[in-house]
């Protein structure tokens, strides 16, 4: 058999039985010998085939679709290292373009005179925002001759886990303001009970991970204004706008949540969420250069001069930075407004249709970011719950998580849908049809399903 015929047969029928080739691939130990590249590819390809369909994953906030021109640009920039600003000066310049655009979008007083940076995602961006709050508090306390050993950070009990990590990693006491049925988000209620002279800042969330709701940053700022009048405590806000930072400016322009509030010191967002870029990319921007302590900034060589840098990660992909600039150029303000508006329309449609199905009660209606959650009606008895519905929908390819709410509401289970660019009305209709079918199936149960089938979900 000649080589050409052999290769063609193997491509059509890629079984792992070529002469001299191992027929087993180790999983937990480095293989001794090399493997043909096409065989290694096929093994990894086959192993990953059982992953869920990204388009049907309504659990994740992360972008799963981009235009083919963006895909082409991505391939051209696979090898760029974002941290190597001297080797890739244009990527560094484009990074500056992007965060300056965000500073302008979020109404920084002087966008070209402030500072920001890209990150691997909002989690790193939150860490940087928190570090700046802590260092600024430390420097102020030192100047006043006061101790700096007991910093605390105030936030909602529904905060994303990255903030719990920040407090753990950087020795900051977390102070959680519990949400409730009366106060579904951190809204300033009883905030004075949680802040003191050791509070480095308050985190306000534009798009709570559990439900998608906005926390009223203007109301929180007003409460902090009142606290300052009574106690003299000047406490700043970091806005975790991982999702809402790329929704509110386009769909809710009258919502005052950003640098229009003097108490807002820094804002982060995820480029790879509603920034419409593949993972992983985040951004953090400070109100002005004074809001980021100079002691945290490193100066790096850049085109014969120096450039300020502040990041936790070093070598990381630069391609996503170029993709973000592409998206800003491609869509512009009006384009983003149209895309986010269409996504929001789908989310509100789904919320309204799910509400009609019968046993469900909405927690929120997707009027903030295109995310909403629902729960079972309290006054009805069923032999099934939201975990069961989640499992049934997963059989049809839909990933729609069910999970308990945070502290004080852990006995309440909700289910949540995240609508992203790529989920149109046709798929939304298919989801509603599938949900109706599965609810009808579950309603026929004459006894509860066993609980050990339930899959876990983590924010």
Supply the CATH superfamily name of the largest domain. Type I PLP-dependent aspartate aminotransferase-like (Major domain)
Largest sheet: 7 strands, mixed
Mean pLDDT: 90
The CATH class of the largest domain is identified as: Alpha Beta
Cα distance spanning the termini: 55 Å
Q: Which CATH architecture of the largest domain is right? A: 3-Layer(aba) Sandwich
Query: Which structural class fits the helix and strand makeup?
Result: alpha/beta
What proportion of the residues is helical, as a percent range? 25-40%
Number of individual domains? 3
Might you state the CATH topology name of the largest domain?
Aspartate Aminotransferase, domain 2
Q: Beta-sheet strand percentage? A: 5-15%
Query: What gyration radius follows from the Cα positions, in whole Å?
Result: 25 Å
Total helix count? 11
How many E-type strands?
13
In the predicted model, the low-confidence regions spanning at least 5 consecutive residues are 3-14
Side-by-side strand order of the widest sheet:
1-7-6-5-4-2-3
Summarize the helix and strand pattern as letters.
HHHHEHEHEEHEHEEEEHEEHEEH
The coarse overall form would be globular
Family: Belongs to the group II decarboxylase family.
Protein name: Glutamate decarboxylase
GO biological process, one term: L-glutamate catabolic process
InterPro entries: Glutamate_decarboxylase, PyrdxlP-dep_de-COase, PyrdxlP-dep_Trfase, PyrdxlP-dep_Trfase_major
